[in-house]
Design goal:
This protein is mainly β. The protein has two helices and ten strands; from the N terminus they run E-E-H-H-E-E-E-E-E-E-E-E.
């Protein structure tokens, strides 16, 4: 998404707005993140790759910060994409941790393409302003 300002001449102001998003002004973190959205890049840890259109790849390990859960019923949904090359050495194990605590694993076996995995959140995270997902 690009933002433009018109004052005599069209000017791209996307960077100015992405550096001053409302999330930076508020004390709250988002509850949902699209890693490919440059306006939400501030919640991503340092190891994420740059965007490629509407997508962003992660290396073997990555992190991001989200708003903490508000109840035990809240779940962490991770949607991603695995190319077939990821399965050359066998199944892929997706391990998730929250604030340094293990939160679960999912074994992806030939799930070429888009996948979604759901994880429970630890009770210690409930009510926190933010949690680190890794």
């Amino acid at each position: 998404m690009r933002l433009f300002r018109v004052r005599g001449r069209l000017r791209n102001v996307t960077t100015a707005y992405s550096n001053a998003t409302p999330w930076r002004w508020a004390s709250e973190f988002p509850r949902r993140v699209d890693a490919g959205n440059p306006l939400l890049a501030f919640v991503l840890g340092p190891s994420w790759h740059p965007t490629e259109g509407a997508y962003r790849w992660m290396p073997g390990q990555a992190s991001l910060r989200l708003a903490g859960p508000s109840s035990k019923a809240d779940r962490l949904f991770i949607t991603g994409y695995c190319p077939k090359e990821m399965f050359a050495a066998g199944p892929v194990v997706l391990s998730v941790g929250i604030d340094g605590q293990p939160a679960g694993q999912a074994v992806l076996e030939n799930v070429v393409g888009k996948f979604t995995q759901v994880f429970a959140l630890p009770g210690s995270a409930i009510g926190k302003a933010s949690v680190e997902i890794h």
